[in-house]
């Protein structure tokens, strides 16, 4: 087991501004990060800094355009967005939002428009990088997921609530003109999600009622799923083919068929484990890392496999981990991610924030449960393989495969608390991000 990972390698620490984490370009040729007011572009092939851009003030956030040619920097102090072109170093874009603070920015699929959402959701502005014009959408609904793009990049959907009634507005991305505006049958719309392949909009109603609605892009109601007497769902995710919809709620997960949006299966009551077919991994409090004479093994630990059944997950977490029912009512299943091939569904429940559940979609049953020593911050699936990275804000990197669960301690120990990971689009290495620094991790076989 250890020999398989002996060539694993961490790069040197990359220091950056808080929240301006290092990120790969979508094409995989470069990596960007920001330190103070400087934006660094690091060439993946040569492993050297290839470009340096200097902003007017300290950078708070960066994001690549989908075509990897542009990158914007948010400067909160000045309420400013600065844009750089990697193919034309003399060009510089600048968007100043005035007195209202920028709360969110994102690229449109065409890589030539930037969407900026201001505080209080007063407006959503769509700025053109090429024509320097702006389209303004007034009063998007003040919810976290108030807008979304279709997977084809042709349509843009915005939730709004005029006169206390929820509506969805559909815009054409080539003209940014509204082409459809229709009401939705919700008491208080809380989130919208678009299908991964089809032009289907999933709408989650507020928690007072368990209701999910599915609409076509032209406003037709395609189906709905409800549960009488239950508190509403918290999260929604389509599998890669768009044929299944996973719903996270207070009890666990529910899978719907996208053909008719009827129940396919559900996985509830996650606190007591009775089945011997489910592999239960537990990360021991006292790791054997430091007790090994092998230099590599001293940085590597295989999780314990607990075989006794039945067993209480809450008891394994310890008496001091008594569930905060108020927090549980607020979150339910709040992390919900399919693997790249759709074979597995990973999720985390608010009742057991240190536990990752893995559901085997083909077998329609739980396959693995992984218990951590700290609360899960984020999950990251490999883009091609069933290989899951688990980040807990500690100095260890946790990995799951269908055959085993293993963790590695970074060589930087307390200096590096991993909160997020991102795979390179094409190669077997990834960027590990903490609050103010990052590191590359090269797996066996990567260059």
Write up this protein.
The structure is a single chain. This protein has 447 residues and is mainly beta. The strands form 10 sheets. Strands 30-28-35-34-33-32 form a 6-stranded mixed β-sheet. Strands 1, 2, 40, 41 and 42 form a 5-stranded antiparallel β-sheet that branches. A 5-stranded antiparallel β-sheet has the order 29-39-38-37-36, with no helix packed on it. The protein is globular, with a radius of gyration of 23 Å. The relative contact order is 0.10. Residues 286-297 have low confidence and may be disordered.
| End-to-end distance | 21 Å
Query: Count of helical segments?
Result: 2
The proportion of residues forming helix, as a percent range, comes to under 10%
Find the count of extended strands (DSSP E, 2+ residues).
Answer: 42
Kindly report the spatial arrangement of strands forming the biggest sheet. Answer: 30-28-35-34-33-32
- This entry's quaternary arrangement is single chain
Beta fraction: over 45%
Main β-sheet: number of strands, strand sense, barrel status?
Answer: 6 strands, mixed
- Secondary structure category: mainly beta
Task: Give a concise summary.
The chain has two helices and 42 strands.
